[in-house]
Amino acid sequence: MFYREAGDFKTNYADDNQTFPIKFDRYRYYFVLFVAFAVIPFLINDYWVNAIFLPFLIYSIAAIGLNILVGYCGQVSLGTGGFMAVGAYACYKLMTSFPEINIFIHVLLAGGVTAGVGVLFGLPSLRIKGFYLAVATLAAQFFLVWLFNRVPWFYNYSASGQISAPERTLFGLEVTGPNTTAWAPYLFCLVILTICAVIARNLTRGMQGRKWMAIRDMDIAAEIIGVNPLKAKLSAFAVSSFFIGVAGALFFSVYLGAVEVGEAFGINQSFLVLFMIIIGGLGSIFGSFAGAAFLVLMPVLLKNVLVGGLGWPTDTAAHFEFLIVGALIVTFLIAEPHGLAQLWRVAKEKLRLWPFPH
Amino acid sequence: MKLKLVTMAVGAVMAAAPVMADLVFPSLSYRTGPYAAGGIPFADGYADYFTLLNERDGGIGGVPINMIECETGYNTQKGVECYEATKGEGALVYQPLSTGITYQLIPKATADDIPIHSMGYGRTSAANGKVFSHVFNYPGNYWNGASGAINYLLETNGDDLKGKKIALVYHNSAYGKEPIRTLEELQKKHGYDLTLLPVDHPGQEQKSQWLQIRREKPDFVLMWGWGVMNQVAIQEAANIRFPMENFIGIWWSGAEHDVLSAGDKANGYKALTFHNVGREFPVFDDIQKYVVDAGKAAGAGDQIGNVLYNRGMYAAMLAAEAAKTAQEMHGVADITSGQMRDGMEALMIDEAKMVSLGMPNFGPSFNVSCDNHGGPGLVGVTQWDAASQTWSMISDYKPTDMDVIGALIAEDSAAYAAENNIAESCN
Question: How is A192-243 classified by DSSP, letter by letter?
Fold first, then answer.
């Protein structure tokens, strides 16, 4: 009815190649942006920002990053936690060494540092594939966590090895530290997420993305048709690590404010982000958002319903939270192995035909 | 998107809950996860004491207590969620029972004017109240613990540790690293050899550390462990036949569930403490009568007298006494978190007060002041008797080396103040 290509005339290539070719999708996209930028900031308080939106936005960035590597380029990585730690510690060192420089630049630089580290740990991917590569990146995870625990320079020789984010401002507004107003860190992360998502979307549907997908689908065939595996794989590692590093920097500086590497960036973190993209959908930007939303919001929602709404004891609720989330993951993967993004795709296909499905 | 809408709806319902005039004490507990064995008795003790005050005295100063429990699972992200969820309810003081969460809450709670009481954990240099205005760690901290252990060893070894080998088995996290600097400073003073053996979270795998201990044969082993790490370490020590009386744990490594699994072999294991053990105190009779027998106990009611239950109850008692002090200071019964902070800073605990609370000789006497949020740092030693399955105090609360610790506290808090642009002051 309202969801179809017909009637939406495109007169040039740019229009023809836009991200959302269907008018309804386009308006929905503008509407989501409008709500996210102009409505939510006026409605939220500290709880909404710190417990729901910040983790959702930051994990979305990390999931987009990992999706580029795993979903688009087919290189399985279990090093996400370690790369996030690189972003966090790079950001911490930059923040404390150059306090006069803008936090936005620090976050981007932290992403850059992580990209470098990611390329380094991506080198084995030229020789090893699949599960074996997963094990190699697992080594990166353990090595990086060990490194940040071991070398006192990274945590400025503090007694406990914890790093704490000092207060930093952007345009005179605090975005890190304890004295933030709720919407400032939210908008800060939202802007970065929007930029990252737009870049990722355009990278993956351009030439670079096609090279990655060629490598993913069959690397020998890709090499024969002229895709350089060295460049393709390492660029995927670099771009992916950049996003993950940015996510790690935000995770530490804006969201948590103080982290301990083993606890915040342990192997659990790697698995969590990997599950996000598997549940959300490999090779889909929307899937990264959906997966992050599912795994971040679901436990909070369940906790609020079970403890706040039904008045269950906290420990029973915590156990049931695991049970329910686990059961939902299994159900989702059985019903739709390609993730939430595939459900969305199917829904769109159906919508195109609706209300005359024949 | 749909999920978000549902969450929003639920959140809106939650936010609309009525605000009552009561004293809110959030309990960031962990009854699940790898550290639950320690988290459960502590949370039970904390809850039961407040229930007792409600049932017996009608709250504190006539105002009922509302204890909100929130499950953190010892996880910092959930800790943040719990903090944000409870602070709007009028929370008076936070006791997260996790060094990681404490670190995170220090700047946030200070900005929100809510005090934190990290009793025997958290950031040690928070003892300097001129920098950490809202953080309290009385009556003792990790550095007191480290020094207390060394003092005890000095005392039992004719005041001489020269050439002795001491190994520290520690949880490789902010918590476990706390004592290292103090032990290194004390090493310069007393001339022992220190070996550091980190154990990674959660601590189930300690074969290599204990192999090293077996090879190097240290005279004494100190342990900074928590959760399953304690049980494993004590079992491993028993396996290599390390003499248990030379094995001393910090106060977080000295509860019943830590030693029970090693059976008779754990006999003689020692742990530091800053409060008494056992259930021979009048207050427990009241808890039994008003709380457990009335069916209002937080847990199964079987934890009373357990070391960590006692500690949770002690923490609740100190919070309640601070609230009383605050009520007297400000002349209002329904105090705010800022007034609670003032009450904590003016807290005085003496033996007469402890007797009147039904806890004679349960903990040390101390005064809190602005420059000293850490209390006197008196440390006692307890020992496990496997035959009767009880802990008993073998060394009374004794002073620790404040010359060394004071200098370290000044140094570390100055570093924090410089990093965060805080001017030292008393308000």
Answer: HHHHHHHHHHHHHTSHHHHHHHHHHH-HHHHHHTT--HHHHHHHHHHHHHHH
